[in-house]
Amino acid sequence: MPGKNIKHVAIAGNIGAGKTTLCTKLAHHYNWEVHYEDTEVNPYLPDFYADMKRWSFHLQIYFLNSRYQQILKIHRGDKTIIQDRTIYEDAFIFAPNLYEMGLMTERDFNNYSTLFKTMMAQIRPPDLLIYLRAGIPKLVSHIHSRGREYEGNMSLDYLKRLNEKYERWIGKYQEGNLLIIKVDELDFERNPEDFGKIINQVDSQIHGLF
After folding, report:
1. Would 2 be classed as within a structural domain?
2. What is the reported pTM?
3. What DSSP string runs through 55-66?
4. How many structural domains compose the chain?
5. Treating both helix axes as pointing N-terminal to C-terminal, what angle do 136-146 and 156-172 enclose, rounded to 10 degrees?
6. What is the mean pLDDT of each run of 10 residues along the chain (210 residues)?
7. Helix, strand, coil % over all residues of the chain, rounded to 5
8. Theoretical Cys-Cys bridge with 55: which of 37, 48, 66, 111, CB 3.0 to 4.6 Å?
9. How far is CA 116 from each of CA 17, 18, 64, 196, rounded to the nearest angstrom?
10. Which residues are catalytic?
11. 57: phi then psi, degrees, rounded to nearest 5
12. Are 17 and 91 in contact (CB under 8 A)?
């Protein structure tokens, strides 16, 4: 079976890019286990969107710890795991963006960055990183369709800043194997043909690994 020797697949992408949906569908197709991003029980997320400056450091530390625990569990286990968002995105996208926007203090950002570097010395990158590249209209459409109340205050400028950081990060990504999927013209949730195109790309990456 394709992917039987792969231990860790991760999906990266901006808010609303379709990470969770694709994680679920790929997990079902390949019989992988999913580690979802902790958004439903995250105790800081609603407060963060209401007052980003007050809660930014708390939120980022929570996500960093949650994702670090996921990776340690993946390393210890014997199953193939697909992960919804990566630890890299916390450190290279969201925390720096909050710092640059004046929503995280320099002291907190330096503390966060030092902790991230310590964690990086203990873990390995994913066997395959899948990046979902999406334009702002696609992101906004997905965000509105899922109707999370705490995301209602999110600005277009915030999404644009994140997208720019994603593109810079992916352009320099050399930690492991990378697959970029352009999702603007795809509806992999409802269109089996579009999902099939993604499966073909993932299969090609997997067969190239082993």
Report:
1. no
2. 0.88
3. HHHHHHHHHHHH
4. 1
5. 120
6. 72 93 95 82 85 94 92 92 94 95 96 97 94 90 64 72 95 95 89 93 82
7. 60, 10, 30
8. 48
9. 25, 26, 8, 36
10. 84
11. -65, -45
12. no
Q: What is the pLDDT of residue 57?
A: 97
Report if residue 20 sits inside a domain.
yes
* Structure-token pair, residue 62: 């929570």
**At 34, is the secondary structure helix, strand, or coil?**
strand
DSSP 161-182: HHHHHHHHHHHH--SSEEEEEE
User: In sequence order, what are the residues at sequence separation of 6 or more whose Cβ sits closer than 8 angstroms to the Cβ of residue 119?
Assistant: 64, 68, 87
pLDDT at 3: 45
d(C-alpha 61, C-alpha 33), whole Å: 25
What would the two tokens of residue 180 be? Answer: 């970029």
- What pLDDT, on a 0 to 100 scale, did the predictor assign at position 195? 94
